[in-house]
Amino acid sequence: MVQDRPGPQQGAVPMLATIDETEKMLEAGGYVSDRALATVLFLALRMQRPLFLEGEAGVGKTEIAKVLADQLGRRLIRLQCYEGLDVSSAVYEWNYPAQMIEIRLAEATGEADRATIQDNIFSERHLIRRPILQALSDDAAGPPVFLIDELDRADEAFEAYLLEVLSEFQVSIPELGTIRAAQPPIVIITTNRTREIRDALKRRCLYHWVDYPDAARELAIVESKVPQANARLARELVAYVQKLRGMDLFKAPGIAETIDWASALTELDKVAIDPETVSQTIGVLLKYHDDIARIQQGEGYKLLEEVKSEIAAAE
User: Fold this and answer.
1) Are strands 76-80 and 145-149 parallel, antiparallel or unpaired?
2) Would you call 177 helix, strand, or coil by DSSP?
3) pLDDT tens digits, residue range 237-282?
4) Residue 19 neighbours by CB distance under 10 Å
5) pTM higher than 0.70, yes or no?
6) Are 277 and 268 a contacting pair, CB within 8 Å?
7) For the chain, what are the domain ranges?
8) C-alpha–C-alpha distance, residues 133 and 181, integer Å
9) Closest CA to 79 of 149, 7, 162
10) Cα separation of 101 and 47, whole Å?
């Protein structure tokens, strides 16, 4: 049984008229973006191309897909990549218990021949749709946002499999034939660059490097995500995190850690940061013992003094 659905159609994705509208859409979803990100996202939507987002862990790549799905009113389908990810986990598999029951019933009643039994057991009702096939399936709300998260964690063989999906928005199932998306999903791919992704896949996408934000944008993010935080506290902790990222740490804190630290200090009713507070809460910000030890052994206090001096001088 071949299910050869129509190919991608134009106009399936709501068209944002300008880059400014795209930026405002992200802002309405609580995402503080820069102009370059808003531009490439606008183009990805207009051109119906996958968006490939690369950057350090914790800089907000995954959040972009979540905000996009929320603001466009689309379903978010997430494929979390990992080593050993295969077709049965990512694309589809057959409901073997249900197939066996149907075979036994057919044998018991003697009402079907072999060809009919085969057609019945390899039909849509026994097909279990995994994220990729879900993303290519019809949706009443419109094409979903399909997040392929941390692709660099998957094997190269799976990366190669994605080429057909991203170029034609289709998958091949031996028992059913080729299944194509009537409307292409909005595809967001993220990678933390633990390994290089091949050029063949990148060529099918628009690319953007998501970097750590500068101090002004990070402060805006904290004010958006933790509005109850004291204004001086927000300024100090953002300045502190910015200086931490300039150190040779095993893992610099991401934006997610900055937000967590702001929330934690707000829960402690802090209106400013001090050496004792840094020492007691540094585990919210840093996740490796060697990095924490460096901060607690004196380097963190020097950074704090610099932050206090710079903020005082600016006032």
Assistant:
1) parallel
2) strand
3) 999 999 999 999 999 999 999 999 999 999 999 999 999 999 999 9
4) 16
5) yes
6) yes
7) 19-91+130-209, 215-307
8) 9
9) 149
10) 46
